[in-house]
Design a protein that fits this description.
260 residues; two-stranded antiparallel ribbon
Length: 260
């Protein structure tokens, strides 16, 4: 058992340690409150979406069998009428165009839109958005053998002539004979080295599903370059008579002197 004076000093040390820990914990708590005092948590806002039916109703179109040119023309007319919900109008136009572009991509693996705008945006081709499609691997015919698995190459024996000179090693001289490798055709049919004789190759092509869209910054998602509002000309105020060198009274006196 430790002596009394040693136990007392040990107890004082523990009390001092606990006091320092509590002090720094309170300071750290107040410091965290100070940091969080002026911090505002970011508000999570849900992106506005619209179905095809809602977009058709919003755009005033009854039949779902519409063309991209009809959608873009109706959007331009509605936009020039200064609608109240401009964001909703742009969203309806983008929703319909994405649906129509996806349909074209599913049928022919590319989309074609003829912009009806006079000042069409060349960066987005009048759609107001830049599309990024998903990609998928598909098997297509080999472009070297056209899916036939074999190709014609020049015969190495006769170098494409169909005949060669066969030398007589015993008596000398030679005889012009028909090539037995290509049978006088000059070409031989071999397995395609590009597709390894399979006739098909894998190719990554864009899918009809749109992966993401990027709003066009050049036309502000409109698809056409909107004319800028004309600025009012500044009114030029007439400068007061006189300047720091000559006063108004002296200027009037000089004017009378010149007249006389």
């Amino acid at each position: 058992m430790l002596p009394a004076d040693v136990r007392a000093s040990q107890g004082d040390a523990e009390a001092m340690t606990s006091h320092i820990v509590r002090k720094y914990q309170s300071q750290l708590f107040h410091y965290n409150l100070f940091l969080l005092k002026g911090v505002t948590m970011p508000q999570v806002t849900e992106e506005r979406t619209m179905t095809i039916e809602e977009a058709l109703q919003f755009a005033g179109l009854e039949s779902p069998d519409v063309t991209p040119e009809l959608v873009m023309t109706g959007f331009e007319i509605a936009w020039k009428g200064h609608p109240k919900d401009r964001k909703g109008l742009i969203l309806a136009k983008n929703t319909l165009l994405q649906h129509l572009v996806s349909q074209q991509m599913e049928k022919q693996r590319y989309f074609e839109i003829v912009s009806p705008f006079e000042t069409s945006c060349i960066h987005c081709r009048g759609t107001g958005e830049i599309y990024k499609f998903m990609r998928k691997p598909v098997k297509v015919n080999c472009h070297i053998c056209a899916g036939k698995k074999k190709v014609n190459v020049t015969c190495r024996k006769c170098e494409g002539t169909g005949r060669y000179v066969e030398r007589d090693k015993k008596f000398g001289g030679g005889i012009n004979v028909e090539c037995m490798t290509c049978k006088g055709k000059g070409k031989v049919r071999v397995k395609c080295s590009h597709c390894f004789g399979k006739g098909k190759i894998k190719k990554i092509v864009p899918d009809h599903h749109i992966k993401s869209t990027t709003p066009c910054k050049h036309c502000d998602e409109l698809g056409f370059i909107a004319p800028k509002p004309k600025s009012k000309p500044k009114k030029h105020e007439t400068p007061p008579i006189g300047n720091p060198v000559i006063t108004q009274e002296n200027a009037a006196a000089l004017t009378e002197m010149i007249k006389d």
